[in-house]
Write a structure and sequence with these properties.
8-stranded mixed beta sheet; alpha/beta
Length: 407
């Protein structure tokens, strides 16, 4: 009897489903795809089979009413390549779940009790957990016999000490409403911190890493011997670094001021801080490539947005250096971190006394895979480490559910 070794990874958003099918014998990708604009007449399915190296992307546009129809479309695309959800080689389905609160500190096989707890966390993740739940329930209906595994964005950060995870507000109020710093992007931080240690040829338990996940959403973490001890996002993904459309750190009294002086409602302020702030609020663009182009043309708004972005980044690097005491590496990852050499150079500039430096030639190179961009003499390694959240979800899912299938 063939041992099932494939894992389907699903990332269900409010109007989209991203997916990858991996073979865990070598973590190779068999297919990747996206269903977007769910619920609209212009829904789009994009699918790329990768098995055998002859990738041919397929796209089609057709109305997809809901997530059940979206996952049915995913199943149809996979079946066309002989990779259908009915395959006996499929071991489990892994789901990205954004918020796991304090209860879920590791990947968890989904049960009705688990689903109920994820639903109870909806008030602290209203944009994400409902969509994640829909994806899980739909997948359960399609393959009720398979283990469904939830992998939580917040889980990696549950090792933070109370001194880092608590806000300095009334404890009873905080506990009653689950107000604390949870952190996000944890799957990426877990993967990148481990991959950075591997790049250095060391065991993760021996390495202290500052991970900078810089995409449209951005977060930093301080990882001590493989365990997160501090991260920049808090109760929600709004706290911390300057992001594409989010403000990051801001005086909470700004909210009261806008209510009193501008007459803005809570929803209007929520929209301002989450969707009309950050880089887009400062200069009208949240694409770092476009911001660099505008800087080259002498645009002062673009220059100021870039400078504010880097200033905040440097503050966190310095703070996390102090938290860790000893830093072995700083790792840049995600869309901006992996591709924007000027951001990396600016973030490290002036930090030579901390042992941090970037080699201009290495930094300018564009190569696949993890690589060092610091000069040989630097006391602290600076690395570019492409994140792979899907592989991390698949790895955790297979480690948990694979054994159950094979038993």
């Amino acid at each position: 009897m063939t041992t099932p070794t494939r894992v389907l990874v699903l990332n269900s958003g409010s109007s989209s489903v991203k997916y990858q099918l991996l073979d865990m014998r070598d973590a190779s990708r068999l297919a990747v795809g996206l269903v977007e604009r769910i619920g609209e007449s212009t829904s789009r399915v994009a699918h790329t089979p990768l098995e055998g190296g002859g990738a041919e992307r397929r796209e089609r546009t057709a109305p997809i009413a809901d997530h059940a129809a979206a996952l049915k479309a995913v199943a149809e695309e996979l079946a066309r390549d002989g990779l259908g959800l009915d395959s006996p080689e499929l071991a489990a389905i892994g789901h990205r779940v954004v918020h796991g609160g304090l209860r879920f500190t590791e990947p968890t096989v989904v049960t009705e009790e688990v689903l109920a707890e994820i639903e109870r966390l909806v008030p602290v993740a209203p944009l994400h957990n409902p969509a994640n739940l829909t994806g899980i329930r739909t997948a359960q209906a399609l393959r009720p016999d398979l283990p469904q595994v939830a992998v939580f964005d917040t889980a990696f950060h549950t090792t933070m000490p109370e001194a880092a995870s608590r806000y300095a507000i009334d404890v009873e109020t905080a506990d009653a409403h689950r107000i604390r710093r949870y952190g996000f992007h944890g799957t990426s931080h877990a993967y990148v911190s481990r991959a950075t240690a591997e790049l250095l040829g060391r065991d993760p338990s021996e390495v202290n890493v500052i991970v900078l996940h810089l995409g449209n959403g951005a977060s930093a973490s301080a990882v001590c011997g493989g365990r997160c001890v501090e991260t920049s996002m808090g109760l929600t993904p709004l706290e911390g670094l300057v992001m594409g459309t989010r403000s990051g750190d801001i005086d909470p009294a700004v909210i009261f001021h806008l209510q009193r002086v501008a007459g803005m409602s809570t929803d209007e302020i929520d929209t301002l801080l989450n969707k009309r702030s950050g880089l887009v609020g400062l200069c009208g663009d949240n694409d770092m490539r476009e911001i660099h182009r505008r800087i080259g043309e002498g645009d002062p708004a673009a220059r100021l947005a870039f400078d504010i972005y880097v200033h905040r980044l440097k503050k966190y690097i310095g703070a996390y250096y102090a938290v860790l005491g000893r830093v072995d590496a700083v790792a840049f990852t995600a869309g901006v971190g992996e591709n924007a050499a000027p951001v990396r150079a600016a973030a490290m500039a002036g930090l030579e006394e901390l042992g941090l430096a970037v080699d201009a030639g290495l930094n300018a190179e564009r190569t696949e895979g993890a690589r060092l961009i610091s000069p040989g003499y630097a006391r602290v390694a600076v690395a570019v480490v492409p994140t792979d959240e899907e592989q991390e979800i698949a790895r955790q899912t297979f480690a948990l559910a694979g054994g159950k299938v094979n038993a």
